[in-house]
Amino acid sequence: MRPLRRYLVLVSLAGCALPDVMHGQRRLSGTVAALVGSATVGRVASISSEQLSGPLFGLRGTLRFWRVELIGQYAQGNLGAEGGSVSEDLVEGGLTLAVRPVPQLSLGIGPHARSYVTDVSTERWTFWEARARLETDLVGTSVRSSLEGWFALSGGVSTALPFGNGRGIEGGVRVRVASTPAWVRLAYRVDRGTLSNDLRVDTVEQLFIQVGIGR
Predict the structure, then answer these.
(1) Which residues pair with 57 in a beta bridge?
(2) Are 31 and 212 in contact (CB under 8 A)?
(3) Which end of the chain has less neighbouring CB within 10 Å, N or C?
């Protein structure tokens, strides 16, 4: 019985130590978040202008392995003009592959697509964007701010007019729920896409809250 007791003691000690060892070696982590907010689309063309707004819903997920991140986001909403004369759906999604040379800085590249959908037509904008994101802790590790900027390396539009350029910026503050992997983030972003020679300029503004889980 004495060898069996020793064996059980060794197994118990190994079982207690294993989570700490695995935690030290684990490098794959991720987050997932639901998004709710509002979006406003302003269009300015050579002979006309309009503004549409409405609610926005979406999801965002991140996978990180060591210093490499894969970030995906999808959002959609139904937008309308004041008075209800015009209505369309805004649908957009993006995928970014990023690296973190230092913990506070993320540099990435990836595709971003946006569609304006009506009962009779669908207009698609596509961008290949370079991105930079800077994060800093404000109160310990519980409150963190972030600032992200991007610009289009190339793009296209499903219209007869050629693509011009695209760029945008997003800022936000994230608050982590104490002693849990849950967090809440409030953010504002503005994204601008233009046709060649500024024949048309689309400005998309979003104010949203993300509720997520993960580290």
Answers:
(1) 36, 76
(2) yes
(3) N
CA distance 51 to 44: 9
What distance lies between CA 175 and its chain's CA centroid? Answer: 16
pTM of the entire predicted model: 0.83
Report CA 57 to chain centroid distance, whole Å.
12
Start-to-end CA span in the chain (Å): 45
According to the model, what pLDDT value does residue 163 have? 95
Beta strand 122-139 with 143-157 is: antiparallel
What average pLDDT does the segment 11-35 reach?
Answer: 61
Contact call for residues 76 and 91 (beta carbons, < 8 A)? yes
Q: Give the span between the Cα atoms of 124 and 157, in whole angstroms.
A: 6
Q: Report percent pLDDT > 90 for the chain.
A: 74
Burial of 13 (0-12, 13-18, 19+ CB in 10 A): exposed
Which residue, among 23, 15, 16, has the nearest Cα to 215 in the 3D structure?
Answer: 23
The CA R_g of the chain, rounded to the nearest whole Å, is: 23
